[in-house]
Amino acid sequence: MSRKKLLITGGAGFIGGNFVQYIVDKYSDYDVYNLDLLTYAGDLTKHKQIEDRDNYHFIRADIADRDAIMSIFEQERFDYVVHFAAESHVDRSITDPAIFVLTNVMGTQVLLDASRTIGVAKFVHVSTDEVYGELDFDPTVFFTEETPLQPNSPYSASKASSDLLVRAYYETFGLPMNITRCSNNYGPYHFPEKLIPLTISKVLNEQKVPVYGDGANIRDWLHVWDHCAAIDLVLHEGVSGEVYNVGGHNERTNLEVVKTIIHTLGKSEELIEFVADRLGHDKRYAIDPTKLEKLGWKPTYTFETGIAQTIQWYTENAEWWEQILSGEYRK
């Protein structure tokens, strides 16, 4: 049996980076290619334990660079593509929407063209629940795969646009694909601008923890390793053309998350500092993952076990996030 070639875009980021390690460890018969531009959120130090593996390869490239991407695809002839690469920070999308359109929309379109040209067996597009917009606080209402797309930030609008392009390439050109839409991820190697790693690093350093508005916004938290297992299942078992929502059944307000971290680390709630709310801050995200569960997936982490593991990881790996905060990782 010939070895399969799997391209993972954005494999130096948080979710993509965890997925690279997951796949390299699980599938020794796959050649895994990590393609990343290494922007500010890209970090290869997380891959030191696998960088010498025979089945791991790194390619530095911009997904929006059509000539480079087409050349790479024609040379390597990938069997599968799992597409994580994206600008993903909502606050940054508010200050500079253009880069989100370039990377998330144009970059995805370039990858789709390249995938169609060489005839990949499956293109998995990793998206977000934010494309659905927001829910109110009714605990009986959830996002499903049939929920209309109503993005509220430049970031989520760019992701919704890329979702529609992926769908169009399936409907028009017959490109085998799946789209996954996940709830908020957390876990090891999370870039420390996001809520959970930011809070952990601030608390460990006895610094004030900023909380938007009154902290009542609700998110459904999904451990990144559960997300990796879900994408693996969709890649190999997902029905082509289908969308699968990935949720953790772990809804918490932002304030609850922050207080959990503070209490776990034995610090005072006086570290909490309420700040002006984010523009267009969605109230609540919550996913119904029934469709994916019928395919054979279930989350293994509750929020309690997952956040404890994550806090422990950040405590034991302070060297990693300290070099991120200092900028040392860019040198």
TrEMBL record:
InterPro entries: dTDP_Gluc_deHydtase, NAD(P)-bd_dom, NAD(P)-bd_dom_sf. It catalyses: dTDP-alpha-D-glucose = dTDP-4-dehydro-6-deoxy-alpha-D-glucose + H2O. One of its GO terms (molecular function) is dTDP-glucose 4,6-dehydratase activity. Its EC number is 4.2.1.46. Residues 7-310 form the NAD(P)-binding domain. The keyword Lyase applies. Keywords: Lyase, NAD. Its cofactor is NAD(+). Pfam families: GDP_Man_Dehyd (PF16363). The keyword Ribosomal protein does not apply. Belongs to the NAD(P)-dependent epimerase/dehydratase family. dTDP-glucose dehydratase subfamily. PANTHER family: DTDP-D-GLUCOSE 4,6-DEHYDRATASE-RELATED. This is dTDP-glucose 4,6-dehydratase.
